[in-house]
Amino acid sequence: MQLTLGISKIKKYAVSESGDTLEFIERPGGGLSVVLVDGQRSGKSAKRISNKVAGKVVSLLSEGIRDGAAARAVSDFLYHERGGQVTATLNIISADLISKTLVITRNNPAPVLALRRGQIEILDAVSMSIGTRINMRPVINEFPLEEGLCVLAFTDGINNAGVRKGKKLAVRETFANLLREGLDAQKIADGMLVAALELDEGRPVDDISVAVLKIDPNDGDDVRRVSVRLPLGVLG
After folding, report:
1. 3-state secondary structure 196-222
2. Of 10, 18, 61, 223, which residue has the fewest beta carbons closer than 10 angstroms?
3. What is the rounded CA–CA span in Å between residue 146 and residue 165?
């Protein structure tokens, strides 16, 4: 088997900077963790929050701290640093080669969708953002690493798409349609973002970030690859 990761994100229309931060890291015992943070509101202040939270989580994971413990520790950190007045949503998705499982850790009201054995599950148990109180526990789901598994995580820009026109993105149906096309992880992430942008008429009402992890058959190529596209705008 092989793990593929697709990431697609865009900032809120007419805002200088996205308040979302997405990082990934190789786990000390093997595997990969993806950290997705949405700072309160949008713009530079939200970006500072999400950068700091994501950095703290990545640092803890790199030291071998379990995902759930890292999420609780960072929530406590944000609460004490900002006096419970600032929140952020947090998703950690880990392919853990020690446990041979995919671990989904969620402090986010938005659900995570998982394709398992041909069926899409909506992981939507009640989950709260971090930073509002100490010892905020995440919702954790764990699945065996197996061929065909595909997980979709996103920030609330997906759920807010179309609100200006009284519309709402059919997340499950859109995800299902992209899966039926047999697309890779990056094209699925791109497809979700495009669907949201269409509802927002190209002017996103919120920061949007999408992460897709997919377990595919190994094609015999043992080379690890990372590809990044980052529009820089006008410099200088």
Report:
1. HHHHCCCCCCCCEEEEEEEEECCCCCC
2. 223
3. 40
